[in-house]
Design goal:
By secondary structure, the protein is mostly beta strands. It is 7% helix and 42% strand. Strand 6 and strand 7 form a beta hairpin.
Length: 296
């Protein structure tokens, strides 16, 4: 983990020197206040709690995620029992978080992607699903019940940091990180929690830029399923979904590049509940939370 961070920080520093970076000012900037929020790698807005965002740390943390407000204040910490198949019954490398529907109508769920695999060695990956809790901010921590999807790539292990939930197609989406052309994979939301599910490869995506700076680090689908965000270390890409179009087809059209302030190690992006804006944040102590409006 330390070597990973040192290498990425050097990459970012070198790229800032090599690239002419367009300076963008976010409409709002707050910071992650609590020292526990030191390696945030995913962010997603609650569907049932007003002004609540879910975030989590990546590898090296225990089995938990956090509820914060847009100002960066920690409201509640949720602990869960990790999948028994993992080493020491703990998460391996959680890299993204999403909120969306499940199989039960009228309920909202949190999906936490334990999908990181820096050395492409994991035979299976895990996505945890939690029914969205009410967050009142009166309890510092809670234990939350979870279910676990066990997933396997059809073409061997991959490192990935992007997990999305399509509320219309009822699919989990995973986009790989490191390849020159990254892979887009799906699994049904109604997949078994007891069997290992073979992911379906849908397409490849190619983004321009320096090889390491264009690594795909996060993504999100809006609550109504009409918009998609994907980010790399240097850019944020946006698509409007056409009626009846699967997301993997949407992603193959040319995206619009949106405003983005390059962060130290930006690996998190999430829509606002109404889809009119998005948040980004980064790993690191007291990392900024940026808010941007989506251009009309």
């Amino acid at each position: 983990m330390i070597l990973k961070h040192k290498r990425i920080n050097l990459i970012v520093a070198a790229s800032v020197i090599l690239l002419t970076v367009k300076i963008v000012v976010a409409q709002n900037q707050n910071t992650l206040k609590d020292p526990a929020l030191k390696e945030v790698s995913g962010i997603a807005a609650s569907r049932i709690n007003k002004n609540i965002l879910y975030v989590h740390n990546d590898s090296g943390d225990t089995s938990r995620f956090f509820a914060i407000n847009p100002n960066g204040n920690l409201k509640e910490t949720f602990y869960f029992k990790a999948d028994a198949a993992n080493s020491k019954e703990n998460v391996v490398d959680c890299e993204d978080i999403a909120v969306g529907p499940g199989t039960e109508k009228g309920k909202s769920y949190i999906y936490l992607g334990d999908i990181g695999d820096n050395h492409a060695q994991r035979k299976t990956i895990t996505v945890y699903r939690f029914e969205e809790p009410a967050v009142a901010g009166v309890k510092p921590q809670s234990v939350i019940k979870t279910e676990a999807y066990h997933l396997k790539y059809p073409d061997g292990p991959h490192d990935a940091e992007t997990l999305m939930v399509d509320p219309l197609g009822k699919l989990l989406y995973i986009i790989t990180k490191r390849e020159d052309s990254v892979g887009v994979y799906t699994a049904p939301l109604n997949a078994s929690f007891t069997d290992t599910i073979l992911l379906q490869k849908r397409c490849k995506l190619h983004f321009t830029g320096l090889p390491l700076m264009k690594w795909v680090t996060a993504g999100d689908i809006s609550a109504d399923g009409s918009e998609v965000l994907v980010k790399s270390y240097q850019s944020v890409y946006f698509w409007k979904r056409q009626t009846g179009e699967p997301i993997w087809k949407t992603l193959q059209r040319k995206p619009l590049e949106l405003p983005y302030t390059m962060e130290k190690q930006g690996e998190a992006i999430g829509f606002t509940p109404n889809g009119k804006g998005y948040y980004t944040t980064s790993e690191g102590k007291n990392a900024p939370i940026y808010y941007y409006s989506i251009p009309k």
